[in-house]
Amino acid sequence: MATPSSMCCWTGCCHRIRHPERPSRNVPPSPRPTWHHAHDRRGRGGSATMSDWEFIEVEREGRVGIIRFNRPDRLNAMGTEIGSEIYYAFEEFNDDPDIGAIVTTGNGRAYSSGADLSARMSGEAESAPRRPAMSPWVPEYLALRCKPLIAAVNGVAVGVGLTSLLWYDSIIASTQARFSMRFAAIGLTPELGSAWALPRIVGLPNAKEMMLTGKIYNAQEALEFGLVHRLVEPDQLVSEAIALGEEIAANPASTLRTIKEMTYHELFSPSYETTDRRSTSIFNAARETAEHREAVRAFAEKRSPRFHDVEYMRGVEEEMRQV
User: Fold this and answer.
1) Which residue range(s) make up the domain with 305?
2) Same structural domain, 198 and 74
3) What is the pTM of this model?
4) What distance in Å separates the CA atoms of residue 151 and residue 169, rounded to the nearest whole number?
5) Domain at 157, CATH number
6) Can you give the pLDDT at residue 41?
7) Residue 204 burial by CB count (10 A; 0-12/13-18/19+): exposed, middle or buried?
8) Per residue, what are the HEC states of the chain?
9) Considering 95, 100, 183, 293, which has the largest number of Cβ atoms within 10 A of its Cβ?
10) d(Cα 138, Cα 149) in Å, to the nearest integer?
11) 72 Rama class: left (phi>0) / alpha (psi -120 to 50) / beta
12) Are residues 85 and 195 in the same domain?
């Protein structure tokens, strides 16, 4: 059974979790503590700037980091270069103490049309990577390493543009969004553990229909399935996602990290009893943290709590090791 100390993949006590029912995955490395220590992940001698990105746009709005996929001429199709840029942007936000949540969206008509099959079919070579190629689209990475992820789906989400969303924390969609598991239509099978995750989100009958037909579903159908959490008008999409991100980011970063870890790992729990024992241990440890004590004081004093995540992170790591 995975213990809380083995689940701290956003901290220095990172251990790889291997579930016997799932094949081992090559998870992007997390060699250093994150969320509170900024490091240069790009290997370019300093922090990234707007000019460093070729296939994405990166910005900040308050405590929310925003990544815009920027290949509108290819419907934001995914390849090695754009995937690497997304990964390194994720890493910068993960290591930035001023960022508490991350929003991704697409420029143009699509969120992402999936893998760049046109380049593959034409034999077109991607430009030489400017930094080590890394893929952000690994379930464990999205679920355990990344800060809370919010998708603002502005248009078509197909293939990896959809399967990656299954590991996000919230999905907000434009009324113009469209979704499709097109794998069967191109002779492929679902990726990124989506054949496991999708039925748990939309139900087995809906998931089978989506995977076996490759049908394109509109935003309202996706909402009815439970695939997306809310629909908004196109001109309000990103602002709604940012507002949700700010609401999430107002909470202690380490508490958010632990909740993400718990919800991910409990999906693989063998029994309710195991889940109950583990969650009770983590809850009891959290009750003794500085952040909880500050929240109680703030409630008594009728004020907003002032969380200090750096100090909290040090304390909670030690407490989790003892559980």
Assistant:
1) 254-322
2) yes
3) 0.76
4) 8
5) 3.90.226.10
6) 38
7) exposed
8) CCCHHHHCCCCCCCCCCCCCCCCCCCCCCCCCCCCCCCCCCCCCCCCCCHHHCCCEEEEEECCEEEEEECCHHHCCCECHHHHHHHHHHHHHHHCCCCCCEEEEEECCCEEECCECHHHHHHCCCCCCCCCCCCCCCCHHHHHHHCCCEEEEECCEEECHHHHHHHHCCEEEEECCCEEECCCHHHCCCCCCCHHHHHHHHHCHHHHHHHHHHCCEEEHHHHHHHCCCCEEECHHHHHHHHHHHHHHHHCCCHHHHHHHHHHHHHHCCCCCHHHHHHHHHHHHHHHHCCHHHHHHHHHHHCCCCCCCCHHHHHHHHHHHHHHC
9) 100
10) 14
11) alpha
12) yes
What is the residue type of 238? Answer: V
Residues 236 and 311 both lie in one domain: no
Are the C-beta atoms of residues 54 and 81 closer than 8 Å to each other? yes
How does pLDDT run along the chain (323 residues), one tens digit per residue?
Answer: 333 333 333 333 333 323 333 333 444 443 333 443 333 333 333 344 445 899 999 999 999 999 999 999 999 999 999 999 999 999 999 999 999 999 999 999 999 999 987 766 555 555 555 556 788 999 999 999 999 999 999 999 999 999 999 999 999 999 999 999 999 998 999 999 999 999 999 999 999 999 999 999 999 999 999 999 999 999 999 999 999 999 999 999 999 999 999 999 888 777 767 766 777 777 777 777 777 788 778 878 888 888 765 344 444 445 444 54
Place of tokens 């709005």: 61
